[in-house]
Amino acid sequence: MGHPAPISQPSGTSTAAPRLRDRLTIPVLASGGILMAVMQTVVVPLLPDLPRLTHASAATVSWMVTATLLSGAVLTPVLGRAGDMYGKRRVLTAALGLMTVGSVMCALSSDIGVLIVARALQGAAASVVPLSISILRDELPPERRGSAVALMSSTVGIGAALGLPLAALVIQYADWHTMFWLTSALGALGVAATWWAVRESPVREPGRFDVLGTLGLAAGLVCLLLGVSQGGQWGWGSPRILGLFLAAVAVLALWWWQQLRTERPLVDLRMVTRPRVGLSHVAALLTGFAFYANSLVTAQLVQAPKATGYGLGLSIVSTGLCLLPGGVTMLLFSPLSARISAARGPRVTLALGAAVIACGYAVRIADSRDLWMIILGATVVATGTTLAYSALPTLILRAVPAAQTASANGVNVLMRTIGQAVSSAAVAAVLVHHSSPVGGVPVPTLHGYLLAFAMAGAIALVACAAALSIPGDGPSGDTRRAGAATRGARDEAMEGA
């Protein structure tokens, strides 16, 4: 006896929610990436006022940035590996949760110690992008994967461009804790949306978690990045900095030896040393260096006092608006990056992006006095960054097994982070060396800014050369398999006819 007709209505309703979740997977993951970048950026406008607000020294306050950098660098490959082993959605949700907890702590406290710990917790969000890219590989068909990965990669620049003016506006018109309450609410929404809309990936790599490798990598990276980030303040030749660099070399050498002898290592170094993977990591480091100089130098340049002869004396809100076109460009150009990668391969897209970054710095060198030229140059650099950052994860996805995508992309993001840290130190060193007093305060000269642009442009050209050195890549294995399946189905249909 057949079921009554009304039974079909609940059945249709039960499948509607999964279909809606599938449609929301990409927007939810992309919003998580944007939120991560916003969270990392919002503290920047606060830095000049935080010593007064927290009753702490400027050196202590700077740890609100350093703590996020260090924890993010350490946790990105670690959480990537955990995602491959225990479930990517589970680890992604945990990372967003730690970011939200850190934001709530910032909203509730003005104690500098609590704020530094909170910012360290927020560094866990650096793993959001590699974990999300790995989920997209597992869940999306090949024809949708390229554009989704490109969009996910661009969220870093989009969020950074949105975070600066947003934070400046909140700080200007409300108590600074309001900004962290706002990001707390957005973080909680992101956690709930991720848990509801994102499926848990079935692709796992079983094994025991490499605790010793994790501790070794953490110790080595902390020594390395702490030395890089504090070198300008403590003195590059000081015993503390030299000791940190020597410790980093020793610890990372021992870690490398240990990883090669571990059955289930935290980072598969044999895979890292393959040309397609290793050169992609080198290009990521160089691209991170070239990209980060754009934001650092542009913000300082347009805020320089008019008494310098070149500065525009803009407020922090106006500065954020100058960087906003770059964020919009990254959103608009991510589909183009996917199309270029599909047609020519991500290696070509990466090389093209690095070349465009170099062209952007050429524009900056040609004219850094007129506001429209400054915005144009910064936007060109952002466009090149979109192409490069969108191609890097695609290169990794094509070069590593599906079960290792989160950890491999985590290492790639780590290399970008190291590049950004080195860029920050190098730009600071150049600007400090080329400064002159204005109103009794040392201010970088225009020549110093132009040297910083030239340095970043040269690094971008080296990144272009590194990209062209990557062994050629045609269509991905997934694309070939999908094409073969399509051809097989067509042949069977023709035989049946």
Contiguous uncertain segments of 5+ residues = 1-14, 474-497
Q: Determine the fraction of residues in helical runs and give it as a percent range.
A: over 70%
Radius of gyration: 23 Å
N-to-C series of helices and strands: HHHHHHHHHHHHHHHHHEEHH
Assembly type of the chains comes to: single chain
Question: How much β-strand is present in the residues?
Answer: under 5%
Kindly list the characteristics that best describe this protein.
single chain, 497 residues, 19 helices, disordered N terminus
Describe what you observe in this structure:
Helices cover 80% and strands 2% of the residues. It has helices at residues 8-41, 50-54, 58-61, 63-86, 88-108, 112-122, 128-139, 142-173, 176-197, 211-234, 239-260, 269-272, 275-303, 316-344, 346-366, 371-399, 405-433, 446-469, 477-496, and strands spanning 435-438, 441-444. Helix 4 (63-86) runs antiparallel to helix 17, helix 13 (275-303) runs antiparallel to helix 14 and helix 14 (316-344) packs antiparallel against helix 15 (346-366). It is globular, with a radius of gyration of 23 Å. The two termini are 37 Å apart.
Short description:
The chain is an all-alpha fold and 497 residues long. It has 19 helices and 2 strands.
How would you summarize the topology of this molecule?
Elements: H1 8-41, H2 50-54, H3 58-61, H4 63-86, H5 88-108, H6 112-122, H7 128-139, H8 142-173, H9 176-197, H10 211-234, H11 239-260, H12 269-272, H13 275-303, H14 316-344, H15 346-366, H16 371-399, H17 405-433, E1 435-438, E2 441-444, H18 446-469, H19 477-496
Helix pairs in contact: 1-7, 1-8, 1-9, 4-5, 4-6, 4-10, 4-17, 5-6, 5-7, 5-9, 7-8, 7-17, 8-14, 8-16, 10-11, 10-17, 13-14, 13-15, 13-16, 13-17, 13-18, 14-15, 14-16, 15-16, 15-18, 16-17, 17-18
